[in-house]
Amino acid sequence: MLHPSLVSAVLLLAGSLGAGSTNTRNTPVEAQSLPHPQVLNVGGGQLSPDPQVINDNFAATTTGCPGYSLHSLTESQNGLTAKLNLAGAACNLFGTDVANLTIQVTYETETRLHVNIFDTANSQFTIPESVFARPKASGSSTAKNSDLVFNYDATPFAFWITRRSAPHATPLFDTRISSLPATPIAPVILSDNSTALDGFPLIFENQYLQLTSALPLGANIYGLGEVVSSSGIRRDVGTDGGVGTIQNDWARDIADPVNENIYGVHPIYMEHRFNSTTSTSQSHGVFLLNPTGSDILLLTPPNSTVSLIQYRILGGTLDFYFLAGPTPSSVIEQYSSIVGTPTWQPYWGFGFHLCRWGYPSLAAVKDVVARMRAAKIPLETMWNDIDLYQAFRDFTSDPVSFNGGEVREWIEELHKNNQHYIPIVDAAIAKEVNSTDIYDPYRKGTELDVFIKNPDGTEYIGQVWPGYTVFPDWFAPNALAWWTEALSNWTKGGVEFSGIWLDMNEASSFCDGSCGTGIDISNTSTPFILPGEPGNFVTEYPEGYNATISGPSGNITVNGTLTYGATDSASNGLSARGIGAGNQTGVELNTPPYAIHNANGRLSNHALATNATHAGKYVELDTHNLWGLMEAEATHKALKSVLPGQRPFIISRSAFAGAGKWAGHWLGDNFSKWEYMYYSIQGVLQHQMFQIPFVGADTCGFNDNTDEELCNRWMQLAAFTPFYRNHNVKGAISQEPYVWDSVANASRTAIAVRYALLPYWYSLFANASLSGTPPVRALFWEFPNEPELFAIDRQFLVGRDILVTPVLTPNVSSVDGIFPGRGKTIWRDWYTHDVVKAVSGSNTTLAAPLGHINVHVRDGAALLLHQTPAYTVEETRQGAFSLLVTLSANGQAFGTTYLDDGVADPPGPSTTVSVTAGKGSVKLASKGTFHVAQKLAEVTVLGVAKKPASVSVGGKAAKFTYASAQEKVVLTGLSVDLNKGTTIEWK
């Protein structure tokens, strides 16, 4: 819960990237006492001009930089090593050209190729192994058996990656593009202001790296995040002479702008190529392991036969991993071999979660919990935002409104009811304001030397919710022990949490630089007006809202005659700014010569100063994007100590590659707008690629007011996303699902489906933790040879078997959706089991009255379900199972369900139940040592063409019913032991 929209007008520079960067809806009045930014560089240095000014002063003509030449080649069966020497006079575009480089090429596995280009002196920043453990080569992969092939030209040096199976096809990655005309959309000034770039050679400087690869014209590119993209899940590569995407990689605290950098950094993309001649496709992936701030451009030069991807990086090395695929899901799985598979989620984590910023007291929270139960809307976990704290300080509870003893009693009552509690933890630690102020987390952290410092060794002091703050330094040797003790003391003090919510961890600061250094820090007031207070009332409602029609419920009449474009207000955010860069040399920590497209302007703005130091050996400029990842790891390890034997449940806002090993993610401070409900789908799909699959949005929207119709639709959509939480802003109207009867009814319906599907959800996430397989999928991941699906992100699949088609616009009673498979796949309605009469390869219109979300089941599925969804996940788990089998046209189906205790860390004994259908039978088999106590009580088989004469279970005759309209056989009253399995036959 960060609310950057509240402070953007105060904190952003006047010249920052305009489109989408400032939310004027919640702009506060000018803060009365903003800190002075000139104290940014304690120990020397001044602030630089606005980076937009730097970048917009560029030359329009270009000629060449020298590139590099390869020599001293050493080859082995597993790869090669060579030297790269600067091939001419240095350009010194944005720093000093590095004359001597090393390239190492390693065939690590048959599907993974590692190409690392680094300075031979090893002076550039690389991620320490303690933060990111690089994968090991298999030892069996060689240049002869790899699916990928590294090719190169020695002078000027360039390389390209091909498939062994198609050596003459268009390369997967190709830097041989020096013959392309220089393009006016990507100009740069050279150091002498007289020459400029000819083509796109390799540039490797101490503060600027550049590498460009050709892409097929109009390539299908996915990934590169985190971002709310106006082009949807498929990234825009531009058209003739245009930049389609500028993906800025600088973790940023901001309320979900469109086409700008936000909380996380994930420099991985997947390209999907379709051969129209053979009607087949292949996917591959490219990952750059470099956390330094960067721009990644997707563009198409004028009159070009190719599109381009260009990396512009502020430092570090060019450490690339290429993934062979060839299917979308296999690319994602192979990526997990680099960054790690996702952490195991507890079974209860898949329940419904509820929170808001603005619960004033424990009494208010208790009332919400009671009203949820009275409304019979399942509530698994109650959360608290910063209202919990005393003076906004981490690891506290307000002694009046959230009395520690009362909080303990209430949480214990939750636990007795099989419910859970999660509080927020912000990134910044309050600094004691005077000698009488005793705040143990700060005092102990100072003793253990765990806070980030200024270059002169003094404490780096920013400003966040509690006033002037310090920030944990995760590189500090004692940081983990200190963090573990703070969390342990908190739960011992009464806040007996089941998990932790990490916020503000880009890390964010409300001022620019070490603003508390050398000044009176006793003023702990927030430097802007909080939402809901005079001067900053929350007044916005969703698109199409009409308060005169039906008051707070909005435009609730669903008549099917009005529609609103879900993305009409989206801006591409690119037109206001040029692409070039400035003319500076030397190592400049605070304002690097190349100004990346950080939409906040200076890199230190609403963040930490880039010359802040970590453990005396690293600087924020190099490590900024790692802060959220490292906090998530520390919290995960701390919870293993504080809650031994339990799986850590953590939701984090900021992330870098590999964060899914430690935590899940929510999509940040979105808006109560229909377009943001749509954007939530692409956000969930992005993070499946990033190996952070446990992800979801603030349901019904965070910023602004929701209304009845939007919340109705969103509560149903979010029931089919991994992380399911309703959360909204202080000062907005209440949006708990019981507020409106229609929302309560819709929520009960959707949650019942979700809880029935919990064994399926849990099995999908077990597969993710074991193999990196994405639980939620874009349609084309399962149907990769159907081009009409390549841009679909208004529908999605849960696993391979569940198709979700939500309503994403107001005032409609139907929705259009495409059914993959082009008529060869049978789709059945979840609720009625009717076969859908779908239009092959294009949209089918489906009825969607308010309160109904379309869900369809794919043929060939065998789903073990909870027969009777209950109020909590644990109560649901204690009930019997049912089985749904949907036969394909040839009468077959298959499915597996992974079962264990759902909480043990590391996971303990497990059992996998396999279901195989074919030739008039359904066979259940069990493998594993976990004892499944609950019995299988009901079986439904769809696709049985005629009524059977008899049905048997385990060789004994069984009673059944048959519905010819759905070709449905139903057996009830069973008591099948899933530990032993059985066979169901019909004749």
UniProtKB/TrEMBL annotation:
Belongs to the glycosyl hydrolase 31 family. Residues 342-764 form the Glycoside hydrolase family 31 TIM barrel domain. Residues 772-862 form the Glycosyl hydrolase family 31 C-terminal domain. CDD domains: GH31_MGAM_SI_GAA, GH31_N. Residues 23-46 are annotated as: Disordered. Keywords: Glycoprotein, Glycosidase, Hydrolase, Signal. The keyword Amino-acid biosynthesis does not apply. This is Glycosyl hydrolases family 31-domain-containing protein. The keyword Signal applies. Residues 1-21 form the signal peptide. It comes from the Eukaryota. One of its GO terms (biological process) is carbohydrate metabolic process. Pfam families: Glyco_hydro_31_2nd (PF01055), Glyco_hydro_31_3rd (PF21365). GO terms for molecular function: carbohydrate binding; hydrolase activity, hydrolyzing O-glycosyl compounds. It comes from Mycena albidolilacea.
